TrEMBL record:
This is Xylose transport system permease protein XylH. Keywords: Cell inner membrane, Cell membrane, Membrane, Sugar transport, Transmembrane, Transmembrane helix, Transport. Its main location: membrane. The keyword Signal does not apply. PANTHER family: ABC TRANSPORTER PERMEASE PROTEIN YPHD-RELATED-RELATED, XYLOSE TRANSPORT SYSTEM PERMEASE PROTEIN XYLH. It comes from Aquipuribacter hungaricus. The gene is mmsB. Part of the binding-protein-dependent transport system for D-xylose. Probably responsible for the translocation of the substrate across the membrane.
Length: 412
């Protein structure tokens, strides 16, 4: 028998009832956030599946390091893409922008011989300019983002061919290559492993626990329903075990990749921006209900403009990482990257209609795609079949989103 709890009831009372009124309330507690919690369960299941299918090779220290290096730029793109999707837009141009920014950096550093950091700054400047270009047409002219970025995909791919004169430029200096291929190893020593990597992993777990506890406390203060404390502890322990196992494997390979440090900083910054700033709340408001956001005084045009400027910046960061990883710039660089970033956001729980999604969800969605791609490569699965599997996973993720919406509508 279900229990109806008034909206004004204290959160502690809600939690207590959930623990003592039977199976139905426990089920409600566990499924209340199925959209966000289900993706973590799916990620663990997929990792376990490929570990079995590959005989443990997918979880080897060397392979885990390779996953970080090979898919870091997709995760960087996914951070920006999920914010674009939350606001109710889409960006189809990011792969072309990755190619263009890498090309600009390569021309300056390789062909013109300027210092590597000048190439990095130039790439970021180009990314910001591209983002401002898209933001102007979307926010101030009113053209749908789908059309603007589709045009941008063609435009900036063509500019990439022009900048590179349709040839590949390589190699970059060693310093530039370290952006995507460098490691921090031996700072704190360790007997057969890198202790510094383990320290960073432990700090990450501690930060996650403190942040989760503060969020839980804030929800109790505002009389919002929360999970029971034992479940909260269980979640923190589970996440901590996964993170430390990951750090342990990295520590026994080549240490902490520089690119993982870059990615970690971006995740922390954008998690704070999306959850704890006015700008982040405005993004959710625009995607959730545009009319209500406008009536509430949100400067919709300015917010939309800066969303695309930010996407351009992160595309430039991904372009730098990818060109450093490839040790050069190719006219075909970034091909289909936009689809991988979009898939990561949707698999991670972003809603097709906007207003829903998280940075961490997009990261987990991207990691699911990365683990599947890497696992199928280790198994020798044909490339065409890999595309089929990825497409089905994306379709199922969106179908799950639609199903949740219909179920929520029916329950009202």
């Amino acid at each position: 028998m279900s229990t109806t709890t008034p909206a004004t009831a204290p959160a502690a009372e809600v939690t207590s009832k959930a623990l003592h009124t039977g199976t139905s309330d426990v089920r409600t507690l566990l499924t209340r956030n199925l959209r966000t919690s289900g993706i973590y369960v799916a990620f663990v299941a997929i990792v376990a599946l490929f570990a079995i299918l590959t005989g443990g090779t997918s979880l080897s220290p060397t392979n885990i390091t390779n996953i970080v290096l090979q898919y870091s730029y997709i995760l960087v793109l996914a951070i920006g893409m999920v914010l674009v999707i939350i606001a109710g837009h889409i960006d189809l141009s990011v792969g072309s922008v990755v190619a263009l920014t890498g090309a600009v950096s390569a021309v300056l550093v390789i062909r013109e011989g300027v210092p590597w950091w000048v190439g990095v700054l130039a790439a970021i400047a180009v990314g910001l300019a591209v983002g401002a270009w898209h933001g102007f047409w979307v926010a101030y002219v009113g053209i749908p983002a789908f059309i603007v970025t589709l045009a941008g995909m063609l435009l900036f791919r063509g500019l990439t061919l022009q900048v590179l004169s349709n040839i590949t430029l390589s190699p970059f200096p060693t310093e530039y290559g370290r952006i995507a291929g460098g490691f921090s190893n031996g700072l704190l020593g360790g007997n057969g492993f890198d202790a510094f990597t383990l320290l960073i992993g432990a700090l990450a777990v501690a930060g996650y626990a403190v942040s989760g506890f503060r969020t839980r406390t804030a929800r109790i203060r505002y009389a919002q329903p929360v999970e029971s404390f034992p479940l909260f502890v269980l979640r923190v322990v589970a996440v901590g075990a996964v993170v430390m196992a990951f750090a342990w494997q990295l520590a026994h390979a080549r240490g902490l990749p520089y690119v993982l440090v870059i990615l970690g900083v971006l995740i922390m910054v954008y998690a704070v921006v999306s959850n704890r700033t006015v700008f982040g709340r405005q993004i959710y408001a625009i995607g959730g209900n545009l009319s209500a956001a406008m009536l509430s005084g949100v400067k919709v045009k300015a917010v939309n403009f800066w969303i695309f400027v930010n996407m351009g910046f992160l595309s430039a960061v991904a372009g730098i990482i990818y060109s450093a990883r490839s040790n050069g710039a190719q006219p075909s660089a970034g091909n289909m990257f936009e689809l991988d970033a979009i898939a990561a956001a949707f698999i991670g729980g972003a809603a097709v209609t906007g207003g829903v999604g998280t940075v961490m969800g997009a990261m987990v969605g991207g990691l699911i795609m990365a683990v599947m791609s890497n696992g199928m490569q280790l198994m020798g699965v044909d490339q065409s079949l890999q595309s089929v599997v990825k497409g089905l996973v994306l379709l199922l993720a969106v179908a799950f989103d639609v199903y949740n919406k219909r179920r929520a509508g029916a329950s009202r």
